[in-house]
Specification:
Strand order of the largest sheet: 3-5-4
Shape: elongated
Number of strands: 5
Radius of gyration: 25 Å
Low-confidence stretches: 92-104
Distance between the termini: 91 Å
Number of domains: 2
Number of helices: 7
Length: about 220
């Protein structure tokens, strides 16, 4: 009887020690080590890839934002603020009309097939809107020039980037709305165009938030 109690107590003590050691290693030492390495090697990414403007965090380079006008009476969907570069069609995005606030609501995709009637209607309407919004005196957008990312959302609905083709499509409208020359805006887009990661991964892209921050600075500079 005494041996049984002793063995049980010994096993329980051994199990408790193993629990304490594993808790210390996996719950304290390992997280601290990983955090320390991340902060030392790439602190920006470890802290959420924050983007700052005017001394404030205005978003993340990994999460897209919407640039819309305030809702008007009777509207259910806000109209885009066309003085800013627009990102891809969004699902579940927060709004950022002054580049100083951001609120994430949710993330999600439409989950509709390519032949879905609703999806076809959305894409058709989006294409018409892109052509109308970006056609200005002296420049008319050709339907064939509208890239896919201008009329479709990403799987998350939070894609922060657009293709260089979609950014180029918006140059004349941005110049017209902000009193800039086409050359100035084109130079800005070129400066914010990133190539493929490591030269072969993904596609060339333009981060919309970073581009709009650059646009804001350019407008202030020439004003």
């Amino acid at each position: 009887m005494n041996n049984s109690v002793t063995n049980t107590a010994r096993l329980l003590w051994a199990g408790l020690r193993a629990l304490l050691v594993l808790t210390l290693v996996t719950g304290v030492i390992y997280p601290l080590a990983v955090t320390g390495i991340a902060q030392g090697i790439f602190p920006g990414r470890a802290n959420g890839s924050e983007i700052r403007a005017d001394g404030k965090v205005v978003g993340s380079s990994l999460i897209g934002q919407a640039y819309n006008l305030p809702l008007r009476k009777g509207e259910q969907t806000p109209a885009p603020d066309l003085k800013w570069f627009q990102g891809r069609p969004q699902n579940g995005l927060g709004s950022n009309t002054v580049n100083t606030r951001y609120k994430l609501i949710l993330s999600g995709a439409t989950n509709r097939s390519g032949d879905n009637k609703d999806l076809i209607a959305w894409v058709t309407a989006a294409k018409a809107a892109v052509i109308k919004d970006n056609s200005v005196p002296g420049y008319t957008v050709s339907p064939s020039a509208v890239p896919a990312d201008a009329v479709t959302s990403s799987g998350s609905g939070l894609d922060p980037d657009i293709s260089p083709a979609y950014a180029d499509l918006q140059i004349h409208r941005i110049a017209d709305r902000n009193g800039l020359s086409v050359a100035q805006v084109r130079k800005l887009v070129d400066a914010h165009t990133e190539g493929r990661t490591l030269g072969f991964i993904g596609e060339p892209r333009v981060n919309v938030l970073e581009l709009n921050i650059g646009l804001k600075e350019l407008v202030e500079k020439v004003s």
